[in-house]
Structure formats: C-alpha cells, structure tokens
C-alpha cells in the first residue's frame, strides 16, 4: 500500500522567452533571456539551451550583464530579489532581498556597486504607481543579503522596461511615461520634464512607448504610438531643447536601441521589420524585413557584432549586424 503524498511541482517549462529584452554576452557566444521563474542561457552558434539559472520563486522580470564583470549577470524578479549569477557555470553567487516585487533592472559602469530597479510604491503587486530607486548592493561574504540602503531617484515612472534608459556614461537617465519625458541628471540631482500635446491636428498619437540614449552624444531617442521617433537634443538647457522627427513605422514603435558606438539607431514594431537609421544621416536607413512576427524588443551585443530581436510569437532572431539572420531560437507557441 503506497502512502498518498501531496503532488508538488518541481519544475515548470515552456514559458515565454520573449517576456523581457534578451541579453547578449560580451563575447557574443551566449544569449540570456528571462523565461518564467528562470533565466535561460542559449548558445548563439548552435541555438541550444546550455544553462538554466534556477532559484527565483516568481516571474523573472529582467536580466542584466554586470558592468564590472562580463561573466556575471543580475536577474530580478517579482519575488522581490535581485540575484547575481555566474552564467557560464550556472552558479548562483548572491541573492539580494529587496522585499518589493521588481519590474525591471538597470545599471551603468559609472555607478559601481549600485543597481537601479523599478518597483511599486506599495508592496502590493496590484499597485499601479511605480518608482525608480537606486539599490546599493552590500559587499559582504554572505550569500543571502538584505538590502537596506535604497534611495528614490524618480517617482511615477512607467513599469515598461523599455521606457527608462541611461545616457552618456550614466551621467543622466531618461524616463518616458504617457506624454511626458523626464531627464534626471545625477551630478546636479535635478530633473527636467518635457511634455507633448495629446495629438497633432492630423490625428497623430504622441504617447511615448519607449526610449533609448546615445552612448556618447547628448541625444535621447523616443518612440511613439503613431510610429514616429523623436531625437531630443539640448535638453540640459531646458528652454533651448530641440527635437527632430523620423517616421517610417505605420504603427507604435515598440523598441529602440543604439549600437554600442552610437553609429546607428535600431527600431522595430508590428511591421516585423528591423529598421537601421544612420545616426547623423537619418535619411539613410537600412531594412531587414520579413522577420515573421511583431518585434517586441531589440538588443545588441556589447561589441556590436550581433543584434537580436524578440517577437510576439515567442521567438528570438539572432542577426549578424543587421545584414542577415544567423539563427532563430523558438519557444513554445500556443
């Protein structure tokens, strides 16, 4: 007679691999993406899953290369923790307990030992007001660490990870929500806000959808619901700011990304076309069409050799610097 034991789920597979922007390792050999409660590590050459980083107890909401060590990544989750991994060996190095569900994570090389996270202003998961905070990661030998040094940077930000970006060596950050673009300067500890009107006479929808910052110049690119891209300049003198407008997408721009050298701006949306705009010569652009389904995220490897696009059909396409598709990682499809 076998005793009736309670059935317990040990591992669940088949989750979305396109829920958040993927990350390409510094040597372009690996692609990491959030997948359910885990982080999957794929080989960019063979498309096979070579590691699965398991430890979170709720949805993983962000993956980020550690700026000071290219063999380590941070992951954040709705379980209220940030975890540090050695992703080539699949080893969990540290767990930082924040205590609030985390929506997204950012870092910059000039803010050592600090990660920036977006989390609700209340502990409730259903809270719809979010803030961006700086979390100082304690340097200690313990594997499980409570983070107590948390400072608010911006209140009322979007929970969309693509709506916050760091500019020029982490000197400032840009946050877009609704019809407002806010740029916060760390040295001055001051933020400037820029507002757009509801729409133009011809019915364009000006709502911000995503933001990207040029790695070297003071230029912020924003995507909008009507398919337009705006390039903002002179925003450190609030009264003299200017923007120029690019338009190719016929529907909302879902993702923007500058290449590491800043020579090109990549954009994508429902047309399933990757558009590459030449920075400074925006009339020149290249297209990689017929990628199969709407583009939800774009990522570029730190050396600029590989691009990748996430798609609405749970697929990630790896592209050799916008010339040709080199491999496709396909998750389960309904």
Automatic annotation (TrEMBL):
WD repeats lie at residues 53-95, 201-232, 246-277. Gene3D superfamilies: YVTN repeat-like/Quinoprotein amine dehydrogenase (2.130.10.10). Keywords: Nucleus, Repeat, Ribosome biogenesis, rRNA processing, Transcription, WD repeat. Pfam families: Beta-prop_WDR75_1st. SUPFAM superfamilies: WD40 repeat-like (SSF50978). InterPro entries: WD40/YVTN_repeat-like_dom_sf (IPR015943), WD40_repeat_CS (IPR019775), WD40_repeat_dom_sf (IPR036322), WD40_rpt (IPR001680), WDR75 (IPR053826). This is WD repeat-containing protein 75. It comes from Ameca splendens. The lineage of its organism: Eukaryota, Metazoa, Chordata, Craniata, Vertebrata.
């Amino acid at each position: 007679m076998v005793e009736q034991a309670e059935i317990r789920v040990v591992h669940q597979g088949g989750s979305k691999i396109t829920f958040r922007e993927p990350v390409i390792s510094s040597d372009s050999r690996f692609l990491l993406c959030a997948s359910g409660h885990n982080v999957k590590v794929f080989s960019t050459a063979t498309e096979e899953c070579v590691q699965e980083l398991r430890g979170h107890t709720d949805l993983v909401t962000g993956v980020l290369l550690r700026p000071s060590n290219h063999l380590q990544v941070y992951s954040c989750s709705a379980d209220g923790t940030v975890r540090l991994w050695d992703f080539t060996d699949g080893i969990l190095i540290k767990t930082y307990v924040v205590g609030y569900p985390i929506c997204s994570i950012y870092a910059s090389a000039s803010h050592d030992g600090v990660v920036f996270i977006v989390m609700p202003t209340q502990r409730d998961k259903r809270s719809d007001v979010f803030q961006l905070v700086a979390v100082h990661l304690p340097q200690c030998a313990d594997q499980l660490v409570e983070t107590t040094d948390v400072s608010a940077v911006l209140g009322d930000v979007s929970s969309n990870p693509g709506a916050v970006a760091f500019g020029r060596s982490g000197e400032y950050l840009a946050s877009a929500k609704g019809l407002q673009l806010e740029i916060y300067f760390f040295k001055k500890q001051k933020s400037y806000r820029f507002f757009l009107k509801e729409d133009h006479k011809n019915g364009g929808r000006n709502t911000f959808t995503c933001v990207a910052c040029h790695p070297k110049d003071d230029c912020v690119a924003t995507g909008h619901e009507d398919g337009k891209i705006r390039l903002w300049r002179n925003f450190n003198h609030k009264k003299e700011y200017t923007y120029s407008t690019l338009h190719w997408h016929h529907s909302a721009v879902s993702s923007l990304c500058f290449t590491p050298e800043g020579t090109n701006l990549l954009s994508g949306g429902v047309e399933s076309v990757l558009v590459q705009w030449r920075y400074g010569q925006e009339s020149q652009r290249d297209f990689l069409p017929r990628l199969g389904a709407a583009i939800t995220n774009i990522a570029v490897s730190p050396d600029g050799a590989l691009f990748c696009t996430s798609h609405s059909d749970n697929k990630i396409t790896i592209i050799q610097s916008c010339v040709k598709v080199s491999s496709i990682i396909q998750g389960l499809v309904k």
